[in-house]
Amino acid sequence: MSSSRAAIVAIALLVILVALSGLLLLYSRPEPIHITIKPPAPTATPAPTATPMPILVYVSGEVGRRGTQHILPRGSRVSDAVAAAGGFTDLANRDRVNLAGILRDGDQVHIPSMDSNRGDGGLPTPSGGRLVNVNTATLDELVALPNIGPVTAQRIIEHRELVSPFATLADLDQVTGIGPSTLEALQDLVRFD
Predict the structure, then answer these.
(1) Which positions of the chain have pLDDT values less than 50?
(2) Angle formed at CA 112 by CA 111 and CA 118, multiple of 5 degrees
(3) C-alpha angle 105/193/143, rounded to 5°?
């Protein structure tokens, strides 16, 4: 009996020792680390800018393919229209053509011949088209300008009617949606009288 009693006491001591070890481990455990993941702050997505619509021009006279229409990017020059029509012929009077002129939708580029009279009343090559008066232009006239969409055109009209007419190109910078690149594109196309 004493050996079985000794075994029971040994088992009991072992159970108490295991329980005390477990309690000691439980209370001496370090505090758990809480990890908080903070997603980055959302960034503003820039508003899409309007893509300028291409223009359609008609090229006549002394070019490789006379009497043809060509679709060109907005802001194209007369030289681009001549190149699209096959370039000058040998009879072209290049002195009467402003190759640097900016084209607008619906323009006709006419290249006169060398033997035409100076006062023949032939069609002039546009030298930038007619200037758009920002203070009196309709919505359609404003939208025809580079980098100006319907929303920006409406803002221009509202500004000139509710705030004041525009006196200079720099005044257009007050209109939301018009920045330095648009002002640069408009500088040879608008007037303010």
Answers:
(1) 118-128
(2) 140
(3) 30
Can you tell me whether residue 69 is helix, strand or coil? strand
Whole-prediction pTM: 0.42
The CATH topology of domain 132-191 is DNA polymerase; domain 1 (1.10.150)
Could you give the residue ranges of the DSSP H alpha helices within 45-190? 78-84, 139-143, 150-162, 180-186
Q: Which strands form 55-61's sheet, in the order they lie side by side?
A: 68-72, 55-61, 108-111
- Domain ranges in the chain? 55-111, 132-191
d(CA 178, CA 105): 21
Residue 73 has a pLDDT of 92
H helices present in the chain, as ranges: 2-28, 78-84, 139-143, 150-162, 180-186
Spell 12-38 as b/e; 16+ CB within 10 A means b. eeeeeeeeeeeeeeeeeeeeeeeeeee
CB 102 within 8 A of CB 188: yes
Which two three-digit tokens encode residue 120? 């023949």
Euclidean distance between CA atoms 54 and 17, whole angstroms: 89
Neighbours of 168 (CB within 10 A): 8
